[in-house]
UniProtKB/TrEMBL annotation:
<dbReference type="GO" id="GO:0006285">
    <property type="term" value="P:base-excision repair, AP site formation"/>
</dbReference>
<dbReference type="InterPro" id="IPR005122">
    <property type="entry name" value="Uracil-DNA_glycosylase-like"/>
</dbReference>
<protein>
    <submittedName>
        <fullName>Mismatch-specific DNA-glycosylase</fullName>
    </submittedName>
</protein>
<keyword id="KW-0378">Hydrolase</keyword>
<keyword id="KW-0227">DNA damage</keyword>
<keyword id="KW-0234">DNA repair</keyword>
<dbReference type="GO" id="GO:0004844">
    <property type="term" value="F:uracil DNA N-glycosylase activity"/>
</dbReference>
<feature type="domain" description="Uracil-DNA glycosylase-like">
    <location>
        <begin position="9"/>
        <end position="153"/>
    </location>
</feature>
<dbReference type="InterPro" id="IPR036895">
    <property type="entry name" value="Uracil-DNA_glycosylase-like_sf"/>
</dbReference>
<dbReference type="GO" id="GO:0008263">
    <property type="term" value="F:pyrimidine-specific mismatch base pair DNA N-glycosylase activity"/>
</dbReference>
<dbReference type="InterPro" id="IPR015637">
    <property type="entry name" value="MUG/TDG"/>
</dbReference>
<dbReference type="Pfam" id="PF03167">
    <property type="entry name" value="UDG"/>
</dbReference>
Length: 176
Protein backbone atom coordinates (compact mmCIF):
# COMPACT_ATOMS: atom_id res chain seq x y z
CA UNK A 1 0.00 0.00 0.00
CA UNK A 2 1.30 3.46 -0.89
CA UNK A 3 1.72 5.92 1.93
CA UNK A 4 2.40 9.61 1.75
CA UNK A 5 5.93 10.57 2.54
CA UNK A 6 6.48 13.20 5.17
CA UNK A 7 8.53 16.25 4.40
CA UNK A 8 11.56 16.57 6.62
CA UNK A 9 11.81 20.32 7.07
CA UNK A 10 12.68 22.81 9.80
CA UNK A 11 14.04 26.33 10.08
CA UNK A 12 17.75 27.20 9.64
CA UNK A 13 18.56 24.40 7.21
CA UNK A 14 21.62 24.57 4.99
CA UNK A 15 19.91 22.71 2.13
CA UNK A 16 16.43 21.61 1.21
CA UNK A 17 16.55 18.86 -1.41
CA UNK A 18 13.55 18.93 -3.75
CA UNK A 19 12.65 15.91 -5.87
CA UNK A 20 9.96 15.45 -8.51
CA UNK A 21 7.82 13.11 -6.42
CA UNK A 22 8.19 9.85 -4.53
CA UNK A 23 8.80 6.65 -6.45
CA UNK A 24 6.40 3.75 -5.97
CA UNK A 25 9.03 2.09 -3.74
CA UNK A 26 9.27 5.25 -1.61
CA UNK A 27 5.48 5.33 -1.42
CA UNK A 28 5.50 1.69 -0.32
CA UNK A 29 8.15 2.18 2.36
CA UNK A 30 7.31 5.74 3.40
CA UNK A 31 10.86 7.09 2.94
CA UNK A 32 12.54 9.43 0.47
CA UNK A 33 14.76 7.97 -2.27
CA UNK A 34 13.96 4.37 -1.23
CA UNK A 35 14.29 2.77 -4.68
CA UNK A 36 17.50 0.66 -4.57
CA UNK A 37 18.39 1.99 -8.05
CA UNK A 38 18.32 5.58 -6.81
CA UNK A 39 21.80 6.98 -6.11
CA UNK A 40 20.77 9.87 -3.83
CA UNK A 41 22.25 8.48 -0.61
CA UNK A 42 25.45 7.37 -2.34
CA UNK A 43 25.88 10.81 -3.98
CA UNK A 44 25.47 12.63 -0.67
CA UNK A 45 28.15 10.46 0.91
CA UNK A 46 30.60 10.45 -2.01
CA UNK A 47 30.33 14.23 -2.42
CA UNK A 48 31.18 14.77 1.24
CA UNK A 49 27.75 16.17 2.12
CA UNK A 50 27.19 13.34 4.64
CA UNK A 51 29.82 11.62 6.82
CA UNK A 52 28.53 8.18 5.81
CA UNK A 53 26.03 6.58 3.45
CA UNK A 54 22.62 6.88 5.03
CA UNK A 55 19.80 4.43 4.35
CA UNK A 56 16.39 5.64 3.14
CA UNK A 57 14.90 4.68 6.54
CA UNK A 58 17.19 7.31 8.08
CA UNK A 59 15.88 10.14 5.89
CA UNK A 60 14.66 12.15 8.92
CA UNK A 61 18.20 12.08 10.37
CA UNK A 62 19.35 14.41 7.59
CA UNK A 63 17.72 17.21 9.60
CA UNK A 64 20.52 16.76 12.18
CA UNK A 65 23.02 17.57 9.40
CA UNK A 66 21.08 20.68 8.34
CA UNK A 67 19.38 19.09 5.32
CA UNK A 68 15.68 18.85 4.55
CA UNK A 69 13.70 16.78 2.06
CA UNK A 70 10.55 17.52 0.08
CA UNK A 71 9.07 17.06 -3.39
CA UNK A 72 7.31 19.35 -5.84
CA UNK A 73 4.50 16.74 -6.06
CA UNK A 74 3.64 14.39 -3.19
CA UNK A 75 1.84 11.62 -5.12
CA UNK A 76 4.02 8.55 -5.72
CA UNK A 77 4.29 7.44 -9.37
CA UNK A 78 6.34 5.01 -11.42
CA UNK A 79 7.79 7.88 -13.49
CA UNK A 80 7.74 11.69 -13.42
CA UNK A 81 5.91 11.80 -16.75
CA UNK A 82 2.78 10.58 -14.90
CA UNK A 83 2.55 13.88 -13.00
CA UNK A 84 -0.23 16.14 -14.28
CA UNK A 85 0.02 19.86 -15.12
CA UNK A 86 -2.43 20.57 -12.30
CA UNK A 87 -0.26 18.68 -9.81
CA UNK A 88 2.77 20.71 -10.90
CA UNK A 89 0.86 23.99 -10.66
CA UNK A 90 -0.35 23.19 -7.16
CA UNK A 91 3.05 21.78 -6.17
CA UNK A 92 4.86 24.91 -7.39
CA UNK A 93 2.70 27.13 -5.15
CA UNK A 94 3.13 24.89 -2.10
CA UNK A 95 6.88 24.56 -2.68
CA UNK A 96 7.35 28.34 -2.90
CA UNK A 97 5.44 28.70 0.37
CA UNK A 98 7.63 26.06 2.07
CA UNK A 99 10.85 27.69 0.84
CA UNK A 100 9.72 31.16 1.92
CA UNK A 101 8.65 29.84 5.33
CA UNK A 102 11.73 27.72 6.10
CA UNK A 103 14.21 30.00 4.29
CA UNK A 104 17.16 27.61 3.89
CA UNK A 105 20.55 28.80 2.64
CA UNK A 106 20.25 26.67 -0.52
CA UNK A 107 17.49 24.76 -2.29
CA UNK A 108 18.87 21.88 -4.34
CA UNK A 109 16.55 20.73 -7.08
CA UNK A 110 17.27 17.05 -7.74
CA UNK A 111 16.71 17.16 -11.50
CA UNK A 112 16.53 19.93 -14.11
CA UNK A 113 12.88 19.17 -14.76
CA UNK A 114 11.99 19.83 -11.12
CA UNK A 115 13.56 23.28 -11.34
CA UNK A 116 11.93 23.98 -14.70
CA UNK A 117 8.52 23.17 -13.22
CA UNK A 118 9.23 25.30 -10.13
CA UNK A 119 10.82 28.33 -11.79
CA UNK A 120 9.07 28.33 -15.16
CA UNK A 121 12.50 28.72 -16.80
CA UNK A 122 13.25 26.32 -19.63
CA UNK A 123 16.95 27.14 -20.17
CA UNK A 124 18.64 25.84 -17.04
CA UNK A 125 22.28 24.98 -16.40
CA UNK A 126 23.62 22.66 -13.73
CA UNK A 127 24.74 24.21 -10.47
CA UNK A 128 24.03 27.53 -8.84
CA UNK A 129 21.45 29.59 -10.71
CA UNK A 130 22.23 33.24 -11.50
CA UNK A 131 18.84 34.33 -10.19
CA UNK A 132 16.80 32.69 -7.46
CA UNK A 133 13.03 32.49 -7.29
CA UNK A 134 12.95 33.36 -3.57
CA UNK A 135 15.14 36.24 -2.41
CA UNK A 136 18.13 35.29 -0.18
CA UNK A 137 17.84 31.58 -1.02
CA UNK A 138 20.28 30.11 -3.53
CA UNK A 139 18.72 27.91 -6.21
CA UNK A 140 21.00 25.01 -7.16
CA UNK A 141 20.19 22.46 -9.86
CA UNK A 142 21.70 18.98 -9.62
CA UNK A 143 21.08 15.96 -11.82
CA UNK A 144 18.37 13.57 -10.75
CA UNK A 145 19.75 10.73 -8.66
CA UNK A 146 17.48 8.25 -10.45
CA UNK A 147 19.13 5.19 -11.90
CA UNK A 148 17.47 6.14 -15.21
CA UNK A 149 19.75 9.17 -15.65
CA UNK A 150 22.29 8.53 -18.40
CA UNK A 151 24.98 11.01 -17.34
CA UNK A 152 28.35 9.65 -16.25
CA UNK A 153 28.46 9.05 -12.50
CA UNK A 154 31.64 11.17 -12.24
CA UNK A 155 29.83 14.10 -13.90
CA UNK A 156 26.87 13.82 -11.55
CA UNK A 157 29.16 13.54 -8.53
CA UNK A 158 31.14 16.65 -9.55
CA UNK A 159 27.91 18.68 -9.47
CA UNK A 160 27.07 17.43 -5.97
CA UNK A 161 30.62 18.34 -4.89
CA UNK A 162 29.93 21.82 -6.30
CA UNK A 163 26.79 21.94 -4.12
CA UNK A 164 28.89 21.23 -1.03
CA UNK A 165 31.21 24.13 -1.92
CA UNK A 166 28.29 26.53 -2.49
CA UNK A 167 26.85 25.64 0.92
CA UNK A 168 30.23 26.05 2.65
CA UNK A 169 30.70 29.49 1.00
CA UNK A 170 27.18 30.57 1.97
CA UNK A 171 27.65 29.38 5.58
CA UNK A 172 30.93 31.30 5.82
CA UNK A 173 29.21 34.49 4.58
CA UNK A 174 26.30 33.95 6.96
CA UNK A 175 28.62 33.77 9.99
CA UNK A 176 30.21 37.17 9.27
Amino acid sequence: MLTSISDHLKHNLDIIFVGFNPSLKSGELGHHYANPNNRFWKLLFESGLTPRKYAPEEDAKLLELGYGLTNIVSRPTKAADEITKEEYQQGRILLKQKIEYYSPLVVCFVGKGVYQQYSGKMAVDWGRQAESVIENVIDFVAPSSSGLVRMKQTEILSIYIQLKKVVEERKALHKK
